[in-house]
Fold these 2 entries.
Entry 1:
Amino acid sequence: MFGGLVTGIMADAVRAAAGEEFVTELRLRVGRPLIVRTAAERKVARMPSGFVYTVTEGDIDALLAAASDYSVYAVSDSMARGYLTRRGVRIGVAGEGVTEGGGVLSVRNIRFLTVRFPRQVRDAAEFVRERIFPGRVPRSTLVISPPGGGKTTLLRELARISSARADTLIIDERGEIAAASSGVPTLDVGDADVLTGVPKRIAYENTVRAMSPEVIVTDELFGREDAEAVAEIVRSGVAVMASVHGRSEGEVLKSAALAPVVGCMQAVITLSPYPRAGTPVSVRIAGEAEA
């Protein structure tokens, strides 16, 4: 179940809360109830007996061991950045940070995990497909939503559609869009090329020259460096589809770091996690009335 990450009694508790095909996220906090999220709701997991499933240190350790192929040391660099991935499943980690010189060296005494399971929704882009693809190459597009709003699911579908028309490259720093295993996507991203696990700035500089993509699809932008890099790529003539956290375009524009990327995009899509993930809030196409 769940790629071997969730087994035994915990798996039974999760299964009692929601079917495996519907689970999008688990939240584990030592000594607290296990929380199960689907696209539509948040539930407390219960054991078959009906008692609330309470997370233990053993649960955390077992999940981390499975996610790291039983070599937590091998993924220590990733965990120092706050997460690790296994076949597209992103596991956020929190505990005690070990710092030096302003940087995080490692995380110890991990007691909190957020496990996010990627889901393929093949019609996720249908509500906006014709407007984003007026021709062979798509409009440069920014997808905005709060956490859990369906940004990655939409980007995955946009990448798949784009790859049938134009040379498309996915820069998948956190491994969530393509869910690659040993470099091979486990989710359907069409004929797109995929680069996983490389910081965006380095990936942008190297792949634009080496791979000559017509379209770049990239996961969540964070901070001025990411925004400026994307703006520069768009100015160079490559279409970019990317996402940022936010509740509205106006909110993102208030960020001095992220405003430049909004200004260079031809389309801005805002999503909401309510009443379910991926709910469209607005679509703005440059030169058109907002929908």
Note: The longest helix spans residues 151-163.
Entry 2:
Amino acid sequence: MRILTSLVLMAASATLMAGGHYKITTTYPGDKFDGKEVKLIDFDTDTVMASAIVQGGKVVVEGEIEGSCIANLSTAGAGGYLVVEKGEITLVFDESKPRSGTAQGTELNSRFNKFFEDNAKSNNVAFEIAIRLRNNEIDTQEAQRLRDSLSVDMSRRVTELYKNNLDNGIGRWAFVNYLMRYDDLAQVKAFLAEVPQSYASLPKVKAIYDRAAAKSVTAVGSKFIDFEVEESAGVTTRLSDYVGKGKMVILDFWASWCGPCRREARGLKEIYAKYRDKGLEIVGVAVHDRPDDTKRAIEQQQLPWVHIINAQDVPGKLYGFTEIPQIYIIDGEGTIIAKGLHGEELKAKVEELMSK
């Protein structure tokens, strides 16, 4: 008989008194997880709700909860999202898919599973479309029509999921994942008007809102947002040291580890060589990168323009972007005159602006 061992981290005493008891039992395939710590991580807050140690291939995590939430029961090499709510829940791992478990035992988990089952069916259809296209059974236009239909269906399912579960953790999870696709501030505000006020205080929702707000104030026609970076001990640089000084500037947010950034750099070098003597400047800003790696990449790629290093997440928060490369064109007065252009589109836009 296998031994069950659980180590529980309880929530605050007020929550304990108000909520219901949950008990999550998990059996892992084989014994390779024995001795490893399992953490139950709240999706809403990214905090650890409880933890336990696996023994004999099994673990029990339990505690008190007010209402419900989506959480990830995670350990090295395996994990599974589930609804944590009052009741006994079993997280089952498929031997063929040991990294992902499925929760059973409560009503909300049944709803959650149904959503993922429908998504799996859609993924199978998408795979079939790709096969048919490759085999010339359908043309590109028909394939795109079918993919668009799948996308509409997926959007409908997510919308229904959050609207039908506004009073529980599934609704919050679905809302965040649905809202993640939008960065227009007016649209984000419209969505927030449809849900409980408590949603606005969720960290992930607040991050989405802040990103959309930042994008709205750094749109084309807006003045650039200045920021200060401590590049090294005692060495501080401001973006305004280089931007808004009378010359047009291409502002390139990048990182040494970013493949698309490296490809973009080749085009920027062509632009710089062609227009630097005509008054164009480029300012590279390294984000989410180690300074030594940034310096090495600058040297290896022979990037001859000004660089601000060690900016980390400061620009992303101010300008509202999460992906790189991000490129802005700023005129001599500091006004953003173009953004989001890459490759040939960027070259064409620079040529247009420099010919005026």
Note: The radius of gyration is 25 Å.
